Amino acid sequence: MNDTRDLLILGGGLVGMTLALAAARQGMSSHVIDRADPAELTAEGFDDRATAISTASWHLFRNIGIADSLEKFACDIASIAVTDQNLPGRLDFQPEPHEGTLGRMFPNRRLRLALFEAAADEPLINWVSKAEVIERQRSEFGAAAVIARGGGEPEKLKGRLMVGAEGRGSPTRDAAGITIAKWDYKHRAVIAGLTHSKPHENVAWEIFYPAGPFALLPMNDDADGTHRSSLVWTVSEEDGKAVTKLGDRAFLAEVQKRMGDVLGQVTSVGARSSWPLGFHHTAKITGERLALIGDAAHGIHPIAGQGLNLGLRDAAALVEVLADGARIGLDPGDAHLLKRYENWRGLDSFMVALATDGLTRLFGVPGKTASAVRRLGMAGVQRSGALKTFFMDEARGVSGDLPELLKA
Q: Are 85 and 208 in contact (CB under 8 A)?
């Protein structure tokens, strides 16, 4: 294919495909290159993970035209309950009725299906799946990727701006020689679907233990009325494999011990998976005709459920910068536009990353004294309407300098 498109997006996951669709709504064309098979990514049972979509991210989905297809799969997060080991001193975040929800929970599979179906119908997106990028080229004149797929001859796809959206192990970032600060938390997130006897009443629970947070996230009931939630349980690296290999009865007993009676009796568990947890943040998110978005630029602890939402903010900001430039005739790879994107997103993503890292370390301090101090602080926040509003606005993604696509 010889046409040069505005964007050359390497990585067609949730963030990369959102970027392509948002850009298309502004009249910008893209090549989206991904090594995965979309049929496998959207197959039943491939991925039992679920994701919290913030209020601002939901506005983005509405503005790019996929909200209607997702609406029926949404489970509202009406409030968030935070405890330290289920001891007294619970902290509750519940917005006023006119403020809406704190977010929505979606199965990852449904998010992928909505994005992929919209992309397949969008003529401004050339979606190339099951392709390996074997060479990346950038110069003052443009960007290109040489790809191989299906055993055929290599092909070259050209764009005016290369976007690295491949995730934490981004080869585009590494090939550009961008410095990255990172560390391993020596933790794993164990993820599973649960069924339980009590309704969750749209409450998301974050129960902190010294080994890491234990999160219970509301999901829609099954068709027969069975109550469901998604578990994200942080365990130490050495315990991760053992926990995933426990028999169902032993696993449910461990879950029940940590969650207490907040959801009643846990009745069954779905397929379990575990993922290593680490922190990384790049020194910069742009280069010559290059921009990084999502986990290619920053990877944070899932303690606050902001990882994907942070990447969606990147996508919305980049599209706004490029669209503003296009209106005055600037090329998508213009250095001044990339500098604006760098300044806009670099600090915000860094501050969110620092905040989640700080929370992880704060709640990881063991001992009764540390727990008592944390609960005293939580009680202070519980009594402060201003602080609670601040934290809720952060959770909903509606604070700071927002791109227009993230606004209602």
A: yes
For residues 383, 370, 185, 360, the Cα torsion angle rounded to the nearest 10 degrees is: 10
**In sequence order, which residues have a C-beta less than 8 Å from that of residue 405 and are 6 or more positions away?**
22, 59, 60, 63, 64, 316, 319, 320
CA distance 61 to 117: 13
Rounded CA separation 213/189 (Å): 9
Indicate the pairing of strand 290-292 with strand 286-287.
antiparallel
Domains of the chain: 4-73+108-181+278-369 (3.50.50.60)
What is the pTM assigned to this prediction?
0.91
pLDDT digits (tens, 9 = 90+) for 114-155: 999 999 999 999 999 999 999 999 999 999 999 998 878 899
Those residues with Cβ within 8 angstroms of residue 378's Cβ, 6 or more apart along the chain or in another chain: 82, 84, 89, 90, 91
Residues, the chain, total?
408
143/160 Cα distance (integer angstroms): 6
pLDDT tens, position by position, 309-325:
999 999 999 999 999 99
